[in-house]
Amino acid sequence: MPLPDRSYTRLKRLQIWTGILPVGLFLVSHLVTNARAIAGAEVFDRAAAQIGRIPFLVAIEVGAIALPMLLHVALGIMLAMTPQAASDAGGYPRPWMLLTQRATGFFLVVYVVFHVSATRLSIARLRGAQDLFDLTARQLEHPAVFAFHAAGVLAAAFHFGNAFAALAGPWGLNAGPRAQAIAARYGFAAFIVLSLIGLHALLAFVHPAFRWLEPAPALSP
Known about the structure:
mainly alpha
């Protein structure tokens, strides 16, 4: 589907910004919230309950998270089908960065649907019958589910960090090759940090040894 070059540039820029700002900020906040698992079930569930009491939470989730995410995905698919997509590799310092960005993007569509349906929209949660920590811990006891979540964490962290280079490139701020190289290094650092946070949180759900901030149980008199 051909587009005028000016329209393609504007839509490509919009896609990058929707990935960096609403979707990226949600990813960071989500991983930081999950990291509270290192303090144990009580602290994690208390944090989840506090989020649940935010006024107009559903409207915020739809307007500030779901819609930007859907727009980001829709633009990515639509723009990939245009003739101009052949030049997208020029938006990254190295061609493999574009390929992995697209691959992780497609994988994350599947992962996010699975993750939301298994937690936020699960029958147990909708009925209020199970705390989120216990629900997550039971799911992660299965090695395949744990591996799938670990892959989701790594893919999300990479997709966000790799977008730094695109933001500094010609489709974003057009800051020049040197600035793009610096942005790519910062993006790689963000990938490492977010991956470690996310993987550590997953381990904390299933292994008490990783809950190193969990208060010690009170001693019986």
